[in-house]
Amino acid sequence: MSHINDTITALATPPGQGALGIIRVSGSETIPIVNGLFRGKDLTKVDSHTIHLGTIRDDQNTIIDEVLVSIFKGPNSYTKEDVIEISSHGSQYILQKILGLLVHKGARLAKPGEFTQKAFLNGRFDLAQAEAVADLIASENASMQQTAMKQMRGGFSDEIKNLREQLVHFASMIELELDFAEEDVEFADRQGLIDLINKIQTLIQSLISSFEYGNAIKNGIPTVIAGKPNAGKSTLLNALLNEEKAIVSDVAGTTRDFIEDQIYIDGIAFRFIDTAGIRETEDQVESIGVKRTLEKMKQASMVIYMIDLANDNVHDITEQIKGLKESDVPYLVVGNKEDEAKAELKAAIKDESPVLISAKSKTHLDKLKDRLKVFVQETKSSSDVVVTNARHLQSLQQTDEALNRVIEGINMEMSNDLVAQDIRSALFHLGEITGEVTTDDLLENIFSKFCIGK
């Protein structure tokens, strides 16, 4: 981990030519370093949160660019240090020249995420909030943005800190008993501790169950479009995407491999995967495609299973649905070619609450989208807080396991040493989420994934 007292600088806007570019500087020497290059007002004498027009000049007093300098004095800044943002024209030559001058004057080029890392280390926010900053930058839809914003403002962190504080009280009582072990006194009510742990585990399970929804918001929902050949899978994909992505043909077995693309439905990303039709075949290439289809179905969060209402028969439909149920994958039955549908086929899938569409004429696709939205909402837990980070999920699961051991230890009347050890383990894993417990390697791993300049 780099030294926290270094003054760092980096380009805060994306590389490439643009109208403007912003260079950020943070650290105890920020103001004197920039002031040595800036010709305008004396930056050592201006107020915080002010903007000043001037020029950046090199040691030969050559003007590099006319700039606006925004100054934020610590601790009222993003990093809680003195921060300056230099807004110049977007020429890469100009930006790199200014960065070079800043380094020449004593600043160091920042590593990815180092500004946010400084903010965390200086107590601006905790680790979960810092990770939410990266999620906010990467947000591609309203749901991702709202979830990341709520976490950045402390919604998830407050929940974790509350759980941890409740456990700390009982942990201190157990530790106190260890200090008076020879006097055989009991400071912690064991039944009260079990009741508290049950309450905490209920909240933890709610957070854990929210991850499926949170992961869907963050990474999209892998949704496989499956069915027999010529059921209309590729036609549906093209209709949903509004483009001719997949080849459509009356010849069975046209799709040999899967085709994937993504659309947003009310801010949620669905990664639709068109697959080879499922059937017995002697064609070696097609059989490989069928095998891949079955593998994709097992990996999917949801399967849109298409039934050909014009050409299938009741026996085949019954067998297909039976196979779906046995696969234990969430699925939605879609009856295609409803404009040519046979009454007995519609009746055969009635119990599955199917969506009846015509992929070719694009009718009732809105009903299909509505059902997909319902599926996403049903995965959301009762908690207002949504877990979107796999690291947080792992820590919550480890906390839950440690609390199970605490209850088991109390019920088996194990020694206070063992019970206290498991409580400490639960506190450790909760502390990992917010950064109350951390290591340099963990921080390096987290912040290295940030963009440079943030």
By DSSP, the count of extended strands is: 13
In sequence order, what are the helices and strands, one letter per element?
Answer: EEHEEEEHEHHHHHHEHEEHEHEHEHHHH
Q: What is the radius of gyration computed over CA atoms, rounded to a whole number of angstroms?
A: 29 Å
List segments where confidence is low: pLDDT < 50 over at least 5 consecutive residues: 246-257, 278-290
In spatial order, strands of the major sheet run: 3-4-5-6-2-1-7
| Helix-strand makeup class | alpha/beta
The helix count comes to 16
Rounded to the nearest angstrom, the distance between the terminal CA atoms is 16 Å
Give the amount of beta strand, in percent.
15-25%
Largest sheet: 7 strands, mixed
